[in-house]
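User: Continuing from earlier, I have the next pair ready.

Assistant: Great, send them over.

User: Here they are, in order.

Assistant: Folding the first of the pair now:
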Amino acid sequence: MGVHFPAKSVRLSQVTILRNGADGGHLYIKGRGDVPNEGEQDIYAYFNSKEEERDFDRQFEGQAVVIDGDSLEFTRSHSTAIRRIISWRFE
């Protein structure tokens, strides 16, 4: 069972672009960020559309990013995720 935190901004460092699927599938990101009551954790964040994935991929240069997400979902046994990125900005 996971814990959901309300929408918020999360700063991710050590950001990596990941892809799934044989044809490139979907792009998503993994970075290190602060999870309430748990400290720094790996956080996975998912885009809403292929267009957003392409925009991020074009703009990303290895910098930290602040993600505004719909919620932060923490599952101790699995991972922490932002299931729907609302917006992002690079630092």
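And the other member of the pair:
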Amino acid sequence: MKEPNWIIKGYSTDHFSDEVIARWGKYNEELQENAGLIHCQMSILAQLCLENPNETNDIMLFLGEALDRDGKHSGVADALSISFLEWPNLEKLSLNFEVPENVSSVVKEQWDRFGSNA
């Protein structure tokens, strides 16, 4: 059985989850409760971006770096495209915060494919 792409590249979704907990677990205990469930954690990160602007730039940069390590067609990219902010919300955030191009690209592609039905 072939291993998923994101494990072959050496950056597993478990590693991503551990980093999320280490960096932002103090802001939301649900990150720890959902260890390993990166779609749930991605949704919580979106909530943190909206509710705790002091962390938004760091979260965005982290997501950009995670995509660089994990690749555009990976578990992290999948969770970002499905469970993070929808494009209109991310676009509004980008007026005040730096959103890496690879993050906006993944979210925008999902929005362009499915729009508000995603």
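Worth noting for the second one:
The longest helix spans residues 53-70. The chain is about 70% helix and 0% strand.
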